Amino acid sequence: MSTDKEVEVKFRVFRFNPKTDFVPRWQEYKVKVNKSTTVLDALLKIKEEQDPTLTIRYSCRQAVCGSCGMMINDRQMLACFTRVLELNSDVIKVAPLKNYRIIKDLVTDFSELFQKEKQVKPYIIRHDVEELLNPTGTYKQTEEELLGYIQFADCIECGMCSSACPVSATDPLYLGPMILNRAYRFISDPRDLGFEQRLEAIDSEHGCWRCHFAASCSAVCPKGVDPAKAIQLLRRALVKKGVLGISSSKKVELIPMGHVKGKLELPKGWE
Amino acid sequence: MAIYEENREGVSGWFRLRRYSVERALYLMQRLSGIGIVIFAFVHLLYTGWHPGGWGDVILGIFVVYHTLNGLRLVLTEHGFLIGRPIRAVYPYRKGTLYGSQRYLVMVILALFVIFILIWSYVALVIQAG
């Protein structure tokens, strides 16, 4: 079968251990791949058969955990979600994600990113403590309300959007598309009442006003989240609040909701 | 070394355009044209009677016209217009900021840019010189 036909591909892999190396180096490996081999499969093959010192991070192998984001041929991609032969390249260049501190080889440090994420309080904030402690029912929401935020809730926190952002490249304090998308996901959730509490982080010099709409975050997102849209809608909400004087309690006026055609809108092929 | 460990691209990141969407190139040109206009504005404040003349005027026109037209696009998109409403993300993903109205607006501003620059170049190179 043609799917089993193996082709030899050259991998140029970024190697750097900050504790022992002075400068990074590129190491070349030759790997036999077939139509279904992903970049992650190939890297694991290198690690098993050629060089056990190669360091990579991965977990689910199915684009759900967001651990294996890396620069593949100079673009942010998930290694588990990218087939080698679909890249149409004789040499596959693999490097760690840009704009994150390197731990070793292809592994980058996200701790700074998650520290920044805490600033936007990425959880649902409510004031009815009694109801939270002793619930009497569920918090209901309509299909329109759900469609208003469900796209942004699909984020797997792979950090590739913040790596692709040209603003993050020059401003280490910028919250970045991943975190601003996270903020908008909770702000646009009708159950959440914490808009005001997140303002200090998002309505600031290094918050959503720092975005210049290069839209690279949306271009590289592997889950269709569209963080650039989340940031622009966040700004829209802030302008409506600040300029038009709409109260943050009137969420329906600040946040656009999804369109529901008919009773329930299902994607094509889901019927 | 710390600089390699930090792995931050810096300004060189602006220029890495391959494999990204056209908006990144527009962003780079917006930055560069903005810097160009600021430099001209300083010179212009010091020597109010001076202007580059000839091809210099054409380049200045390119900076100003591009910065204005793309700026209008950014004013619209950055206030949440023309980027589509939130949708359910279903594969193959079509992201509102990279398709549809926003992309048409990109084509419109680039077309207007070419038209304005042709007119301005004619004025700067033929009418003013003649």
Summarize this structure briefly.
The complex is a heterodimer of chains A (271) and B (130). With 271 residues, chain A is an alpha+beta fold.
Question: Could you characterize what this model shows?
Answer:
The complex is a heterodimer of chains A (271) and B (130). Helices cover 32% and strands 14% of the residues of chain A. Chain A has 271 residues and is of the alpha+beta class. Chain A folds into two domains: 108 residues, Beta-grasp domain (Ubiquitin-like (UB roll), Roll); 144 residues, Orthogonal Bundle (Fumarate Reductase Iron-sulfur Protein, Chain B, domain 2), CATH 1.10.1060.10. In chain A, a hairpin with a 2-residue loop joins β6 and β7. In chain A, α8 crosses α11. Chain B is an all-alpha fold and 130 residues long. Chain B has a single domain, classed as 3 helical TM bundles of succinate and fumarate reductases, CATH 1.20.1300. Classes of the chains: A alpha+beta (271), B mainly alpha (130).
Radius of gyration of chain B: 19 Å
Give the fraction of residues assigned to helices of chain A.
25-40%
Rg of chain A, rounded, reads: 22 Å
Main pleated-sheet profile of chain B: none
Uncertain runs of chain A are: none
Overall pLDDT confidence of chain A: 92
CATH class of the largest domain in chain A: Mainly Alpha
CATH topology of chain B: 3 helical TM bundles of succinate and fumarate reductases
The separation of the N and C termini of chain B measures 59 Å
Q: Based on CA inertia axes, which overall geometry of chain A fits?
A: elongated
State the low-pLDDT regions of chain B, or none: none
In what order do the strands lie side by side in the largest sheet of chain A?
2-1-5-3-4
**How large a portion of the residues of chain A is in β-strands, by DSSP E?**
5-15%
